[in-house]
Amino acid sequence: MDANVGIVGVGTMGSMALWQLARRGVSVMGFEQFGIGHDQSAAGGETRIFRTAYKEGAAYIPILQEAYKQWRELESETGNQLLTLTKGLTIGEPGLKSMKNVMKSIEEYDLEHEILHYEEAKKHYPQHRLLPNEMIIVDHNAGFLRPQYAIVSAVYRAKELGAIVHNHTHVEKIQSETDGVSIVANGQKYKVGKLLITTGPWINQHINDFDKQIEVRRLINTWFFARDLKQFDESQFPPFTREGNNFSYYGIPAVDSYMVKIGLAASSEDRIKSPNDLDRNIKMGDLSSVKEIVGRDLPNLFEDPGRVSVYMEAYTKDKNSVVGWLPGHDNIAVLSGFSGHGFKMAPAIGKIGADLVLDENIPFSIGRLSPDRFADTQTSW
Ligand SMILES: Cc1cc2nc3c(=O)[nH]c(=O)nc-3n(C[C@H](O)[C@H](O)[C@H](O)COP(=O)(O)OP(=O)(O)OC[C@H]3O[C@@H](n4cnc5c(N)ncnc54)[C@H](O)[C@@H]3O)c2cc1C
């Protein structure tokens, strides 16, 4: 046996599971096809929003609150600043489902917040051009994370605690056996007791029939220069999501005193067949919507992005992630399908992954995230 637990994919969730297992003294071995902290997948682009008042549903809040604690623990174990709280804005008309969800989560969990109606909102956040029927919900437990730095921090801390990581090592084959799980990576065979699959957008390459349930989407992030940079630093311009009837986009302040990041939520139109088909080239059509939005809603940014980068992510149909045992197996668990909103939860998801493979009690209700909900899925290996 090479390790008690193996982890395939040391990106966002894999790095956090590695750290969570290593800090419990478990022998753990991770396999990553690229370098640690790379920007080829779901965690690239320097920043991620952390929010607690959650438009995706109040059911996530216990996990988000645990994630907050875990981010602070990772920071104190490594001495690295990973999460900066700045407050966070959700902007939109009060009647939208996403706005109602945010309000519901605030009410259910008594979250610290403010509500700013049009006149007041304009005064506080003049960078946003608002419509008179829009409001801003200010979430006090929100800010931004440093994703690639967080992955590197978790992996190096895990290594200090005894974890073994093979980077630039592509896992080609996974085989469940009666006494463990065998893995072939870069042509070499390894054996582990239990396995966590955390391959993000590559998930369908290992679990064939998940491709009916999980799709890979191409996401573009754009960075814009500001006419007056001071207005857009993190003290003046908190991370935000702006919601509409047929759009949703988000922004992150100029955290390195340089450019403001804007991203559009992905839809099924952004689907790609496989992560290996990801086109990183930018075409004019890729930028038309974001340029229109910036021109319309953020007039103090220059309309042409100074930087554009392409990433990808695994989406489920219900936008809930996939966390649990692979159907029909008690030695392989999956953490995947984070549907564009998983980074903020990562250390809590890593903890849940560790609890799963160690057969420990999971103090959250994760039934709705179970791969069992893909009832017609036949796992094939
Ligand atoms: C542009 C963009 C913006 C986002 N913004 C936010 C945000 O603001 N806030 C938020 O909370 N979330 C956000 N998300 C979502 C969040 O970043 C993802 O949910 C999260 O990073 C997914 O993590 P993962 O571990 O599933 O995938 P990854 O982080 O991609 O990890 C998968 C890893 O598996 C490795 N791998 C795959 N196959 C193999 C193999 N065969 N052998 C070895 N290694 C393998 C990959 O190389 C990769 O390192 C955003 C996502 C994107 C793409």
From TrEMBL:
EC number: 1.5.3.2
Ligase among keywords: no
Domain (FAD dependent oxidoreductase): residue spans on this chain: 5-356
Cofactor(s) the protein needs: FAD
An MF annotation (GO) of this entry: sarcosine oxidase activity
Keyword Oxidoreductase: yes
InterPro entries per the UniProt record, alphabetical: FAD-dep_OxRdtase (IPR006076), FAD/NAD-bd_sf (IPR036188), MTOX (IPR045170)
Coiled-coil stretches: none
NCBIfam families: PRK11259.1 (NF008425)
Protein name, per record: N-methyl-L-tryptophan oxidase
Species: Lentibacillus salicampi
Name of the gene encoding the protein in the UniProt record: solA
